[in-house]
Amino acid sequence: MFFDSHCHLDRIDLEGHNNSFSQLLETIRADQVTRMVCISVNLETFDDMYALIDPYDDIYCSAGVHPDYEKVREPTVEILCEMATRDKVVAIGETGLDYIEASGDMEWQRQRFITHIEAAKQCKLPLIIHSRNAKQDTLDLLRDHGAEAIGGVLHCFTEDWEMAEQAIELGFYISISGIVTFNQAANVREVAVKIPADRLLIETDSPWLSPVPFRGKTNHPGRVRYVAEKLAEIRGVSLEQLAETTYANANRLFGL
User: Fold this and answer.
1) Domain that holds residue 213
2) Where are the alpha helices (DSSP H) in the chain?
3) What backbone phi and psi angles, to 5 degrees, belong to 135?
């Protein structure tokens, strides 16, 4: 059994599944994925996302606003904590910092990140962290605002081992996506073999980042198996052991 710790089910194009969400879920479950967390990216689409997943016992979600979304309704601690009162919300995020295309003052991203950290502490829910080209600022804000009190996960990790190690020391998990299967992602594999077993998660970040051999195609949680297979290979463990360990880790992180 597999646990996809980070996906965007409401963003997946259903054309390849007869325009049926139920059929998509059948495909996912046939691939032995029995739990998923659907990640919130803004306030405007949260209600529709929640309504989509609410009928299904094996799907959970987060509450948050992605750092890439600049021209959207800004969250407050109160708004995030109100969203978090819903039964299926198991985390705050996705939040963090993304400096890949940074231009001008990024203080608005930092302030939004702080809002999510404070909400997570108040709600007592883990954080889902997105960090790209923002290693030091991400770690500094987590430390400065006491994020170790609630922990969380650095998702779709592509930074270096130094960042992973410091995040683990703060009580965070490290999640590996389909990028680990890409030929040019040697840096991700180098980090992935060092992550302690009890701090490792797997994810698809679907509909993006389809693993080899599906690169360029729409991703879905069923393909988290390919992430697990690559990790099992490079870490020298069985697929069953890798799946069991990451499943238990995700359950522990999300309080399931």
Assistant:
1) 2-254
2) 21-30, 46-53, 77-83, 107-123, 135-144, 161-169, 186-192, 224-235, 239-254
3) -50, -55
CA–CA separation, 193 vs 214, rounded Å?
23
Q: How far apart are CA 42 and CA 166, in angstroms?
A: 28
Distance CA 134, CA 97 (A): 6
When divided into structural domains, the chain yields a total of 1
Peptide bond into 94 cis (omega under 30): yes
pLDDT one-digit tens code per residue, 209-246 = 999 999 999 999 999 999 999 999 999 999 999 999 99
| Residue 70, pLDDT score | 87
Dump pLDDT digits (tens) for 156-215: 999 999 999 999 999 999 999 999 999 999 999 999 999 999 999 999 999 999 999 999
Confidence of residue 105 (pLDDT cuts 50, 70, 90): confident
What distance in Å separates the CA atoms of residue 241 and residue 256, rounded to the nearest whole number?
20
> Could you check whether the bond before residue 126 is cis, i.e. omega within 30 degrees of 0?
no
**SS3 state at 158:** coil
For the domain that residue 119 is a member of, what is the CATH number? Answer: 3.20.20.140
Contact 96, 138 (CB under 8 A): yes
CB distance 207 to 11 below 8 Å: yes
